[in-house]
Amino acid sequence: EEKEAAEARRLIEEEERKKNERELIEKEREKLRDQETRQRELKRAEMQEKLRKQTEKIMEEQGKKVEERKQKMEVKDRLRREFLEKQRQEKAKETAEVREFHERKLREAREKLEVKRQQQLEEYEDKQRANEEKRR
Questions:
Q1: Which of 43, 111, 127, 135 is most exposed by smallest CB count within 10 Å?
Q2: CA-to-CA distance for 11 and 3, rounded, in angstroms?
């Protein structure tokens, strides 16, 4: 009986020890799973941060490119406006010169006509006087 009781106690202790070992092993496995989960989450967080920084950098570069394009367009617009204004001024100057030329020519033609008319009038008056002189 004592042997059986000792054997039973030994078996119970053996079962208890195995149970404790299984629980310990399960706890270790759980610790490992938790650690792996934490590492995965940490890695994912690092990747998200890396992606966020890359996205931020890309957006910043695109913003710079947009700003550069905007500045180039502003310069082009300014140059175009300056060019058009210069053309307008040149056209106005040319128009004024043409107008002045034609006005001068017209004035000269009127003056010539006036001189000619005056000469013809004087010639006519001279002839009239000469004819009057003859009649007398």
A1: 135
A2: 12
